[in-house]
Amino acid sequence: MKRDERVTSDMEERAREYAVNAHTRIGHLRKYHKLPYATHLHNVAALVASVTDDPETLAAAWLHDVVEDTPATLEDVEKSFGRSIASLVESLTDVSRPRDGNRSVRKELDRRHLAKANRQAKTIKLADLIDNCRDICQNDARFARVYLGEMAKLLEVLQEGDANLYGQAIELHHDCSRRLGASPIQDDMPEIPQPGLWNSEIIPMHVIRHYAESFTALDVADPLRSFDLEKNSDEVFQIMKDNSLDVICLRDEGLIRGYVRRSDLTGGRCSEHLRTFRPEQVISGEDPLTEVIRILTIYEHAFVSLLDEVVGCIDRSCLNKPVARMWIFGIITLTEMELVRLISEHFPGDTWTVHVSRGRMEKAVILQQERLRRNRQSSLIDCLQFSDKAQILMKKPEILQLFGFTSKNAAVEAIKQLESLRNNLAHAQDIVTHDWAAIARIASRLEEAVLLRRSHPGGGMTTDTLPPGKRT
Hints:
Blueprint: H1 10-25, H2 38-49, H3 55-63, H4 66-69, H5 74-81, H6 83-91, H7 103-115, H8 119-139, H9 141-155, H10 163-180, H11 205-213, E1 222-223, E2 226-228, H12 233-242, E3 247-252, E4 255-261, E5 282-284, H13 289-296, E6 302-306, E7 309-314, H14 322-346, H15 358-373, H16 386-393, H17 397-402, H18 408-426, H19 436-455
């Protein structure tokens, strides 16, 4: 029976629809062919379906990248598909952070995380490796040598996965290594220059570091209330509802043992609904907002620890607080400064004007004349809208690469998201409900810029300073 003729379960079909929609909403494409990212999800699910008909495994195959690559959190997955599938997706989601070290260090942390996964998750990861390996080795021989080295190390901890897929992965790895002349384990990874943002001297390093490090988790955290572990959950539920609390801590003999969400409390004692803190969810109050946002792209909550005890909680709504809004607006301003610099560099004089529509140019001229009338120095380019400046730069393929976009369509979508965020900030509107993708993007770029400048003050990036995450 062909894959497309196979009868799919309701759970798998819901997972397929959920994942495809999540990746489509952010304009996620495959790197080399610019095809919708759903093609990769379909390939992985088809490989998994060739060796199992377990509905949960097949659903997780469709969802395996949804937390790592889209605004969906593990809690979102759990609400829609249950704890078991969410646990599989968690096992398949990278846990390393840019500040953990270079690429090799981060990949080792992710490998150790994957090593703890169950057979179902490892089977899905084998399918993921097979599809990615085929794609990369066919289209990018240089990076393929890096990928094959990393794949070899992953295969060492995936032997508990399906034997058939494991055999396919081993054979594919050997074939590609032989064809590309790569050793089975590539330790000395070649340099692969990657784009960086804010690399010019226009924005000094100390300014970049200030934005990356001076705004911390404590600036936005809410204090956490705690209740006795054995307290009646119905009573606690009512207290949480009356006080608009989504999450509280549970204590035993005065010590915090874990937490519970209001939606968890369905009767009995609170202890029956206890959730333990995942280490990657707990951060220091001094950790930067970039780290807070990274956690909130995976989990609904980040927990703030003081003297080894959880005392605060942060969810996405906390980014609507004034200090966070000021921080985000500052980063957007830095970005806009960089856009102006890049336009001046790539479009000497006013040659950029041919790439702006007549209507937008007329508005810019009117604004400039008004500013000059008020004795305010203003260049014409400064009078363009944010999206106008970005659209000009999108005319240059090398700028697309600089900003890390795989296609012009992806760039256009990102520009729309960033302008929406900028406008909602300026007009005191909610910036979390619809602008989370843009917030996550700029936080990631800021963190990358600091890592890049620290490692290569003159610009340029190697595999040691590449940010973690999918590259295909």
